[in-house]
């Protein structure tokens, strides 16, 4: 005899409201934490620089307009930003395989190292504020990071599939 197990995956309006509130709180707390860490480090680099390098590292080479959109800046701003990043040797222009007239922007090993150094500096600046976490609190934070990363990765994969990448 086999028994069918049924799980109810529906959510109530209360669950949805709680989820919406929690996600909103998470985004706000994340932005506040990022701004605090950046302020503590005293970094002179624009947040758009780190966002741009992060996008290139996670998504890969892309055209300037798409990079501007992904980094949430205007195209003229991205043009200036890329010019500065090329001068720093943190990104490079590469030929677009789909259009010989166009260029794509790619992160360089030097740019990836700079991004990792910045992330290490940010996290080191935050350690004193979180050094007293209990093991279960640290485990909860780790689980939260993994949940968010898996949802963001899933979203990126869906977007890439829709875009034909």
Automatic annotation (TrEMBL):
PROSITE patterns: HTH_MARR_2
Residue ranges annotated for the HTH marR-type domain, each copy included: 16-150
Cross-referenced InterPro entries: HTH-type_Bedaq_tolerance, HTH_MarR-typ, WH-like_DNA-bd_sf, WH_DNA-bd_sf
Single GO term (MF): DNA binding
Alphabetically ordered keywords of this record: DNA-binding
Keyword tRNA processing: no
Superkingdom as given in the UniProt entry: Bacteria
Family annotation (SMART domains): HTH_MARR
Full protein name: DNA-binding MarR family transcriptional regulator
Source organism of this protein record: Leifsonia shinshuensis
């Amino acid at each position: 005899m086999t028994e069918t197990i049924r799980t109810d995956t529906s959510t109530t309006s209360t669950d949805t409201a709680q989820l919406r509130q929690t996600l909103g709180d998470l985004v706000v707390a994340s932005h506040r934490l990022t701004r605090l860490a950046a302020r503590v480090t005293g970094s002179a680099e624009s947040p758009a620089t780190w966002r741009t390098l992060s996008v290139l590292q996670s998504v890969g080479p892309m055209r300037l307009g798409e990079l501007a959109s992904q980094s949430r800046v205007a195209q003229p701003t991205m043009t200036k930003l890329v010019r500065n990043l090329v001068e720093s040797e943190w990104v490079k222009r590469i030929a677009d395989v789909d259009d010989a007239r166009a260029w794509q922007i790619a992160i360089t090993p030097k740019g990836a190292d700079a991004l990792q150094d910045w992330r290490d500096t940010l996290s080191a600046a935050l350690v004193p504020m979180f050094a007293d976490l209990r093991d279960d609190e640290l485990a909860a934070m780790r689980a939260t990071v993994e949940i968010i990363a898996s949802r963001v990765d899933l979203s990126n994969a869906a977007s890439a599939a829709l875009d034909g990448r």
